[in-house]
Structure formats: structure tokens, C-alpha cells
Amino acid sequence: MLRSETLFGKRETPTPNSPLSASNSLSSNSPSSFPKPGSQNISSGNSGLSSQNANISSTTEGGSKLIVGPNIKLKGVEITDCDTLVVEGRVEATMNSRVIHIAEKGTFKGSAEIDKAEIHGNFEGNLTVRETLIIHATGVVTGKIRYGKLVVEEGGQLVGEVQVGGKPAAVVAPPVAVAASTSV
């Protein structure tokens, strides 16, 4: 048996003739029964909500993804190195990432600087979207908002200080009545 050093101490490494080698019955479990490399599930405890948890996974085509499941509350954190954040529960955080997707019952409170945002639920705070902000019919965005492009479905709400592309949005003044004077 070979030993190798890891971040958490020594680890047993199987050798070709060891009881932990591929020919052992321990390897009879199918690879699908083990988690994929680069993925980790964070359970919500013994509440019986194993399907409703925060799931951290890494995929080659979409990059890293953090899913905060229903009934999960993530509070007081800075989210970094996350390509996509999916909020189905409640998140109070700051983040600088690529994509945020807030589900219909999801809530994000805090500050986010991202490329794309798709809001079905609630966002409250400072939101800077470098590319496209999409607010669906059930979506509500409140706070200081900056965006490159904006799409709002009928029923979607955008409330607060709004800027387009880093420049203040144009303010339309109410029409002013001008009295016409006629001289004879």
C-alpha cells in the first residue's frame, strides 16, 4: 500500500495487488452510484429535504454552478468563482459572477455584478448587469440597478435608481404648456 500526502493528511493509495485494487468486490459498485468528480452536495440537515438542498457542481460546458434550493437560506457570504447562481431559496450576499437566475419563489438581497440576470422572483439591492437583465412577469427588482440591455415582461417590476450602460437613464420632463402670443 502506498501513502500519499493530501491537504487533510495521509491517504491510502491502492497498489495493484492490494485489497482495494480494481479486482476487489468493492469496485463492483457502478460508477453512477458515486458522485461525479468536482461535484458536492450540501445537505439541509436531517430535515428529510434531501432533494431540496444547495448543490455545488462543476461542469465543463457551463462552468461552476451554485444552486440554492427551496427552503435554504444562505446569509452573509461573498460568492466568488461561481459562473452561475440559481436561487430557489433565499440568499443574502455579495457576488461578482457571470449569471444569476432567480426562480419564482427565490429571493436575493445584497449586491451583484454579473453579465446576465434572469429574474422570476425577487432581487433587492445593488444590481449591475453588464449585458442583459430579463425581468419576467413574476419578477421584482428593487434598488440601484445598472444594465446594458433590459427586457421586462408584462407584470415584471423594476423599482429604484435605474441606469443604462453606466450612464444615468434619460429623464423625460412633463410637457410644458407654451402660451401662443399673437400680435396684430
Which SSEs are present, and which pair or pack?
Layout: E1 2-6, E2 9-13, E3 40-42, E4 54-59, E5 63-68, E6 73-79, E7 84-87, E8 90-96, E9 99-102, E10 107-119, E11 122-135, E12 140-152, E13 157-164, E14 167-168
Parallel strand pairs: 5-7, 6-8, 7-9, 8-10, 9-10, 10-11, 11-12, 12-13
Antiparallel strand pairs: 1-2, 3-4, 4-5, 13-14
Helix content: under 10%
- Which strand-content bin applies to the residues? over 45%
Gross morphology is globular
Low-pLDDT sequence parts: 1-61, 167-173, 175-182
**Number of helical regions:** 0
What is the overall pLDDT average? Answer: 71
Number of strands: 14
Largest sheet entry: 12 strands, mixed
Q: Helices and strands, in N-to-C order? A: EEEEEEEEEEEEEE
**Rg result:** 25 Å
Structural class: mainly beta
End-to-end distance? 111 Å
Describe this structure in words.
- The chain is 0% helix and 53% strand.
- It has 184 residues and is mainly beta.
- The chain has a domain at 49-165.
- Strands 3, 4, 5, 6, 7, 8, 9, 10, 11, 12, 13 and 14 form a 12-stranded mixed beta sheet that branches. Strands 1-2 form a two-stranded antiparallel ribbon.
- The chain starts with a strand and ends in a 16-residue tail after the last strand.
